Amino acid sequence: MQAINVQSTKQEEFIDITSQVREMIREQKWQKGTLLLFCMHTTAGITINESADPSVVRDILVFLARTVPRQGDYKHLEGNSDAHIKSSLIGCSEQVIVDQGELVLGTWQGIFFAEFDGPRSRKVMVKWIGD
Amino acid sequence: MQAINVQSTKQEEFIDITSQVREMIREQKWQKGTLLLFCMHTTAGITINESADPSVVRDILVFLARTVPRQGDYKHLEGNSDAHIKSSLIGCSEQVIVDQGELVLGTWQGIFFAEFDGPRSRKVMVKWIGD
Amino acid sequence: MQAINVQSTKQEEFIDITSQVREMIREQKWQKGTLLLFCMHTTAGITINESADPSVVRDILVFLARTVPRQGDYKHLEGNSDAHIKSSLIGCSEQVIVDQGELVLGTWQGIFFAEFDGPRSRKVMVKWIGD
Fold first, then answer.
1. Do C129 and B125 touch (CB under 8 A)?
2. Residue B75 CB neighbours (<10 A)
3. Chain C residues whose beta carbon lies within 8 Å of the beta carbon of residue B126
4. Taking the C-alpha atoms of C95, C54, A89 and C2 in order, what is their torsion angle to the nearest 10 degrees?
């Protein structure tokens, strides 16, 4: 079990961690199997979407901010209920395939750490499930 | 393949099943691998979020009820289209890591069965994928 | 690693791929394990929901179209930001259990390819993780 550390610098942002995942695959010499990427936090998540144009993740964040307002009919006293809701909508994990030592992703796909209550130091566990 | 049985008592509620998952890990003597928790129903789901303050899951449920109204432009005749929609938004499964016989979760994380059309008797399949 | 090819014929539709997954399980003689179904695209997804009444997936699509409008405060220039947003809400993968050579699903569950920006030729990777 490995971990990727992520340092977010804004309250809300998508951080592309694809290159860190690729680097870990090379370092660990993983060849064929799957990787589970699991976010250890309840106000963040993991998602896969387009990494070529940064406008895409900007549009996702703006949509989420509009749909899940920061202030609302919330009882949780920490004032970050919107971040918890977004975490459950986006999901806290993703699983990706590795084949011949390479991450199997579509042309436009990147893996993002989704920060909804930063800036914070975050941790993503990486679990290799080999053939 | 094991199963966790869940009895919901309300139309909508999040039921914390973390302790049942931990108990199963102990009983089965699972040491190192991952667990797939798969909900066998189309009007419920599985999510991971904060278990310390029950206001968090309350806030998620209230948000979902507001965003996905019980009555709407629906064609499905059973009157529970909102529950089906919530199920696809939240997702019907989660995968968690087990290391040294222990569930690997963040400090605030709990595993919840998300009931959207109860009260009902529900079943979550548990599939061990060991190293 | 196998693949399922999907040809969508509308801009938005849910395509039931359950029978194709079952056929692959038979052909590959997979007996006991899990299958990861991973969509290689950023404007589509995979979800599990009711397959008996087609109104259910119609209701999910109508809800998503209303909640994530085609036109909005978007910066991505390709005009399909709504499809990217829906992809991250629904998720790009699902994992299912196989036992005794059979897909383990609830009575009403089917596996759907969720097209949000068709018509297009699409690919779902299928990764077997056997016991």
1. no
2. 12
3. none
4. 30
- What is d(CA B1, CA A64) in angstroms, rounded to the nearest whole number? 37
DSSP E strand boundaries for chain B = 2-7, 13-16, 33-39, 44-50, 93-99, 102-104, 109-115, 121-130
Interface ipTM: 0.97
B60 and A85: CB-CB below 8 Å? yes
The pLDDT tens digits for B16-49 are 999 999 999 999 999 999 999 999 999 999 999 9
Architecture of domain A2-130: Sandwich (2.60)
CB contact under 8 A, B55 and A40: no
Residues forming a β-bridge with B103: B98
| Phi, psi angles (nearest 5°) of residue B68 | -120, 85
Dihedral of CA C8/C14/C19/C21: which sign?
A: positive
Peptide bond into A54 cis (omega under 30): no
